[in-house]
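dumping this here before i forget
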Amino acid sequence: MSFRERLLAWRYNLVPDHAIGEILSKRWTDNAIPFLALVITVAGFGSAIPGFFKLYSLQESTRQLGELSLVVIGVTVVMLGGGIDLAVGSIFALSAFAAVSVFFIFELPTWLALAAALATGFLFGAINGYLIGFMRLRAFITTLVTLIIGRAGYDILVVNFGSRVQMSMASSDLWDFIGDGTLWGMSVPVLTALILAIVSHVALTRSRPGWHVQAVGGSRRSAHNAGIRVRQTVFLTYVFSGLCSGAAGFLFATRLSGAGPGTGHGLEILALTAAVVGGNSLGGGRGSVAKGLMGAVIVLVMTNGLIRLGYGTGTNQMVLGMLLAVAVTVDIRWLKNRHKVLNEVYVAPVYLKMGEPLSAVPGSGTPYELNNRLSVADHIGLGELEGPEDVILDRDDHLYCGTRHGEIVRFFAPDYTRSEVFAHVGGFPLGLAFDRDQNLISCVGAMGLYKITPEREVIRLSAETRRSLTSIQDDARLRDPNDLDIAPDGKIYFTDSTKRYDAHDWAVDSIENRGTGRLLVYDPADGSTRTLLDGYRYTNGVCMAHDNKSLFFAESWRCRIHRYWLEGPKAGTAECVIKDMPGYTDNINRASDGTYWMAWLGMRTPSFDLSLRHPAMRKRMTRRLPQDDWLFPNINTGGVVKFDENYNIIQTMGDLSGLSHPMVTSMREHKGHLFIGGILNNRIGRFRIEGANPAWDANDAYWGKRS
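structure:
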């Protein structure tokens, strides 16, 4: 390797460019900007205002924060449902007045004052919800009208009954405790807001009504087509917002023991600004309660801080208006351009210098020399199949394969002309294996590891593994489970080809060429899934060795075969046993003579090998050219390779005609024939193997003769 190439390797392999794309792709990155703004706001005003962090000052501020947070939570839920609620200020004021009227004028218990405040919030929320949800009026105009009418009604009530509230002698220890007391060092409004925030978060993220709210906010038409009651869902969001404002109004009433002309004035602007500044989308369907709470803290600290620094109300309103304008601009522009930014930074190629391979050109005289032998293979299911990536046969000689439509298809022996859909799994069934009880185990692309019982019941075995503590991307989810094999103790060893891309993006993974593939094991004894090996370039085929003390697995983009030891002095370690092959390695399976069959899904080309040494070129390619014009690995020509226990290549077969099986992703020997699958094929090949044992069955080789 030259000095220049060494520098390239250091630059692109050691600098974690991919981390930027990984971070920006996470939904929690939407919280990063408001969280940073929160830290800056608190730190800035805390250092500028003497005594800002003193206990008494914090207690008074948190009481207001609790009340504001309740309103913001309600507004956030409405926004998640695709609406807007400008009436919260007047609902807050009317609810506060209802509470003080019941307590001070009618001298009724505190709990009735709370009920009156909540009933007021419920009533106005239901009116808004009915008009917007069921009558399908525009949310902005409707809630603006409700705001104006509610504010006018409140002003009339205050003028006519405010003096009676002021002159009342009613008192209650419970009322005073709610307004001024603390519990576990926190005020009642803060505790109430925290409890409601937790309940709301769980409901939005873990319950069907919460999912419905976000679905409606994302697309009302799609939600309706999915069977969601859109009108009812919208109605409930406004009812919830009204109840939140009612509870906040009650807490305000207990804190001040009254309600004046300015109660709730401008609260709708505060709440809306807080929700948007926190990162909740005005377009609906995107946001969270946590974002709303962060926005509430930012807005309250800023408004109170400006007042304590001597700035007037006009300055406060101007700052809030600027905050809202900036937040809306960021929300709209980021939502519109996020995918463009990710397209620019996500794909981060690395440097790789492939080893020089032996030639596979016909007539080259190497062990890898391709021929045309597979062109004479018989066809099974010609035109009936789409994407039979792997094939397998049961003890009754019936043939199974997956299709890209999510089905497992069974062809009946002996002529394989009749077929049926054995099971519908979904996803894209890839690797297949039968266990001791003749359950069919399958790696399903983008879904996980599944079992299909002889009774055709589909059972998910695993969809995730333990997340790596040092991993930037979420590697707990199985994104591209590819091939598998089963050990005598029932453990299932399988590959997850890439942690960064889903199964359909395998070509993008080849261009990036990062070591994100891994070998995993599923233990049916406890249902756990563990990562055994990591850092390989597109892990693929898996095959238990004949002695069951080790297994082979393929590393496709490096054109290598590795051996992982399960027993013996090398247990828990892997070694590369065949490298620098001229083809991209795929599935591996046992042969009847104690050797192994391996598929080449495609052949290396000098152009793509050269591109791997120029990551900057590949990066520019993915950014400037449409995907149809990208340089991909050649998968139009492949073949079948046979190797022995000493890793010697003893046979190579191909289809140079390109008519029958130019691309091979799997092959399975069964009773003297080789059954051939290909992920881009529309058929299964059946090729007679000269000199093979006509009675050999892989099921017997693995699990013994049928009893």
